[in-house]
Amino acid sequence: MAYLIGVDLGTSGTKTVIFDEEGRVLASETVEYPLYQPKNGWAEQEPLDWWNASCTGIKAVLSKSGIDGHAVKGLGISGQMHGLVMLDKNGDVLRRSIIWCDQRTAAECDEITQKVGRERLIQITANPALTGFTASKILWVRNNEPEVYEKCAHILLPKDYVRYMLTGEFATEVSDASGMQLLDVPARKWSDEVLSKLNIDKSLLAKVYESPQVTGTVSARASELCGLPAGTPVVGGAGDNAAAAVGTGTVRDGIAFTTLGTSGVVFAHTDKISIDPLGRVHTFCCAVPGAWHVMGVTQAAGLSLKWFRDNFCQAEIETAKGMEVDPYYLMDKEAEKIPIGCDSLLYMPYLMGERTPHLDPDCRGVFFGLSARHTRQHLLRAVMEGVAYSQRDSVEVLRSMGVTIKDMLACGGGGTSSLWRQMLADVYGCPVKTVTSKEGPALGVAILAGVGTGVYSSVQEGCASVIKTNPPQNPLAENSLAYEKYYGLYKKLYPSLKESYKALSKL
Question: What is the pTM of this model?
Fold first, then answer.
């Protein structure tokens, strides 16, 4: 029996899971770490926190499972995308990582658009210049912290920093690299044209691999820290959403998934590259060699619910401890008591600006229609419904591009909520189902590790061997009709507030 490890480097914590070759979970460990917000709209993390969490997690799953590390065939890493990690010539971190949800780089996005040209940028990188992407973060450091930029010898993404610490190799892979705004996405390689126009030295960037390829092996030093034997293969892995696609079997045309993690994603696989010239959704290389995916992103999906939990649900948190259940379970039970539409209360989930479909770093969260009749439970359900509407925005863009969605899967922490899945089914008007495994990205990169080390012959074969689905939750016609009325109003709110958001950002 072969064993595979998946490391999923998220925003709130890193989850490490060890699987057997049939996809069964043998042990799991999650280690959390902080998010720093030194200014409004900024978001940073310490790369060493990710490395320490990964080491702790690997040691823990080996210990819990009782598996000899020599029986582990390979390891894959999934990671939050777009984060900027800058290292000096000695491989030491120069500053905190500016991560995916940071919104400080509007001026640098304008600079990128001016230097490359909006249409040409979309042709090459498949996306317009976005504040969340890595290229604008690189320019921000160059423009605002020139002493840091001068010392920079290596630029990595979050998961690729952990790879470097594991193997000593500076490597990345196509799915995560697609989100840097420096990759020629159709050609699956760094764009010399974009790098030249932005005056970024190509030598700063890591070598690009396909996701299942072996990128290096665990070093002797890392072996002492994490417990995996030196020489254990580490494959390319994938950005979190591309990894979740593999972990849910979204590796063929016609299949899509919705992620309700910190951010929210609607993701559809395509064997032929499809780029939206309006830049409303993102096209990236996917973890299947030679294929791509189209995705819409909500910046603060699960983050909205976590924000609400942390600030307004202390009673549920304390009760959940006594009951030994998740606070979100109790929150679901409370939200179920509130009718669809929350007695005319809407929530706009723009806590960190927004990507799809508005591409607006200045917009912010709103409760619309708040009155004295509303309770905390109304606000709770409104948050969940507002996130569902924001995901519907992404679905509508994909449909307008001719993307066919025959199967919709739900994953991420929010995807475990039966209530939230039913909201999605009713709001989308299509069945929503889950895979039997709850591991998503961690399972996805473990499958990639299996492909890279010969356990499976291809990504599709690995998914067919491992992934099984639960019965779908079908849309309820009367619910869909009710949600449609509120969604119609929801769509009108952003255009009405757009100029006010800009004014607010300048105060």
Answer: 0.82
